[in-house]
Amino acid sequence: GWEVRNFGVGGTTALRCGDFPYSREAAYAEALAWQPQVVVIALGTNDTKPQNWCYAESFARDLESLADAFLEVNPAAEVYLCLPVPAFPGEWGIRDHVVREEVVPQIRELADRRCLPTIDLYSALSGHPELFPDTVHPSAEGAGWIAAEVHRALTCEG
Questions:
Q1: pLDDT for 122-150, tens place per residue?
Q2: Contact 99/87 with Cβ under 8 angstroms?
Q3: Are 50 and 93 within 8 A, CB to CB?
Q4: How far apart (Å, rounded) are the C-alpha atoms in residues 55 and 28?
Q5: Which H helix or E strand runs over 120?
Q6: What is the overall mean pLDDT for the chain?
Q7: Cα separation of 118 and 116, whole Å?
Q8: 3-state secondary structure of 124
Q9: What global pTM score does this model have?
Q10: N or C end of the chain: which has fewer CB within 10 A?
């Protein structure tokens, strides 16, 4: 009974000062215009690139702004924040230690402070480098694991 739409844009950042900010994408405006009842935000991996993470102090604020924008267009929306998947060990400057030690804690703190649920993709896919053929992007099977984890979170199964 759900209508699901994908407004994701690969390579984007939560950081507004990042090299490819999601907030500047047409998909973001389209997602807001749709006024969804449930929003799953999965950003943070590309933020760990050195050219982006130099703005780390803005990460949580910029991610919170994205969540707030969805709540502004639909105050009854349920907004879920995903903890990013791990990188094995990482390409394109994506650094797993930054994901694990900095991004994940910032998302958890934001979620706790704002009472937003999280979807822990990091733990769900940790220890499974075979699901990331290029060390960063999931294979079709890895994408299936991600979808299953999101499904569990949204339906309270598992």
A1: 999 999 999 999 999 999 999 999 999 99
A2: yes
A3: yes
A4: 21
A5: strand 118-120
A6: 95
A7: 7
A8: helix
A9: 0.94
A10: N
